[in-house]
């Protein structure tokens, strides 16, 4: 697949923005500036970037508890995201939701989600709505290896298959569900094998290779848009940090961790870009990204706390 300079540099900028956002979140959390829980996407940047690079603004995504990368890659505003992590009134959820509840409907971001596997039926619903209304929008459902053990996963795949929904299931297999290694929580090696049970295409790709992810996603999106139904893409990757900030991740094998750190998706891609003479553009992107994240932090730190009188607005009671 021939990729334009604009596309390649766009991938780089997105991956660098996610990396910078998450790296700063590590520091800010350690410095007690972020009041809530954060689950970071460090090391997995190529997945969200490659997948969302194959989407239009009109397309939808559902995200997870580890959602910052998905949101940024789909165009989410980093200042509003950061302010939400700070619990400030200017954040996406006015400081009431935190990292796991960020959504931006206009950008097709149907929400991060603290409930593992909850995005799968939501994505099936969004894809059904698009099919019913005869738009040609597609939906991507991001979820983890752990979430592929949930009933919601199996129900959503079956529904999407029988109704030929324009839906792309993207399993980010980072080899862990909290402290449970994939080997211990399922008896298949490739989550993509599960697609066969529902009669849909399943493929496994190197989740640390942004171009490989983009190519697989582009094929699946094409198929979905033309009415041929859903696909399952498994992206093999690695969670660099603990499950959440504060989890030292002592259950991980240090040798395995080292091997994966060497497969960092960003320097790998950067090397390719330098080979095709984009060193200057890369340097400019690095500065741009650093400035953008620094501005998002400043905006957040200078923003007001939520007003206690507003505690019951935007809150739903059953
Ligand atoms: C329904 C439900 N069960 C359990 C949990 C607790 N929990 C939070 S994250 C997680 C593991 C998720 O693993 P995976 O889907 O692989 O995502 P990853 O954290 O690796 O990105 C679990 C069990 C939850 N939030 N929701
Ligand atoms: Mg996982």
Q: What is the CATH T-level topology?
A: Rossmann fold
Sheet/helix structural class:
alpha/beta
Low-confidence stretches: none
CATH class: Alpha Beta
- Distance N to C terminus: 50 Å
What is the gyration radius calculated from CA atoms? 19 Å
Structure, described:
With 318 residues, the chain is of the alpha/beta class. It has a single domain, classed as Rossmann fold (3-Layer(aba) Sandwich), CATH 3.40.50.970. Helix content is 43%, strand content 10%. The chain is built from 11 helices and 7 strands. The strands form 2 sheets. It has a 5-stranded parallel sheet with strand order 1-2-3-7-6, sandwiched between helices. It has a two-stranded antiparallel ribbon with strand order 4-5. A hairpin with a 2-residue loop joins strand 4 and strand 5. Helix 1 packs across helix 2 (45-52) and helix 1 (5-30) packs parallel to helix 11. The model has no long low-confidence stretch (mean pLDDT 97). The chain binds thiamine diphosphate and magnesium ion (MG). Magnesium ion (MG) is lined by residues 144-146, 174, 176-177.
């Amino acid at each position: 697949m021939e990729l334009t300079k604009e596309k390649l540099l766009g991938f780089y900028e997105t991956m660098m923005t996610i990396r910078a956002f998450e790296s700063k979140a590590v520091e800010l959390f350690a410095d007690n500036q972020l009041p809530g829980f954060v689950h970071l996407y460090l090391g997995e940047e190529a997945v969200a970037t490659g997948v969302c690079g194959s989407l239009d603004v009109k397309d939808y995504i559902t995200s997870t508890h580890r959602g910052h990368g998905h949101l940024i890659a789909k165009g989410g505003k980093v200042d509003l995201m950061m302010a939400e992590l700070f619990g400030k009134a200017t954040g996406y959820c006015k400081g009431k939701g935190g990292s796991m509840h960020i959504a931006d409907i206009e950008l097709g971001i149907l929400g991060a989600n603290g409930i593992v596997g909850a995005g799968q039926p939501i994505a099936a619903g969004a894809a059904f709505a698009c099919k019913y209304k005869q738009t040609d929008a597609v939906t991507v459902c991001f979820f983890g290896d752990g979430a592929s053990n949930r009933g919601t996963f199996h129900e959503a795949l079956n529904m999407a298959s029988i109704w030929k929904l324009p839906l792309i299931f993207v399993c980010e297999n980072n080899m862990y569900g909290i402290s449970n290694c994939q080997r211990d929580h399922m008896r298949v090696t490739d989550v993509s094998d599960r697609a066969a049970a529902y009669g849909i295409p399943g493929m496994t790709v190197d989740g640390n290779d942004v171009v490989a992810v983009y190519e697989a996603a582009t094929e699946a999106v094409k198929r979905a848009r033309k009415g041929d139904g859903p696909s399952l893409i498994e992206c093999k990757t690695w969670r660099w940090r603990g499950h959440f900030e504060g989890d030292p991740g002592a259950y991980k094998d240090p040798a395995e961790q080292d091997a994966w750190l060497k497969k960092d998706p960003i320097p790998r891609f950067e090397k390719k870009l330098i080979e095709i003479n984009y060193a200057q553009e890369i340097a400019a992107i690095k500065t741009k990204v650093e400035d953008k994240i620094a501005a998002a932090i400043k905006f957040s730190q200078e923003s007001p706390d939520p007003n206690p009188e507003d505690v019951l607005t935007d809150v739903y009671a059953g």
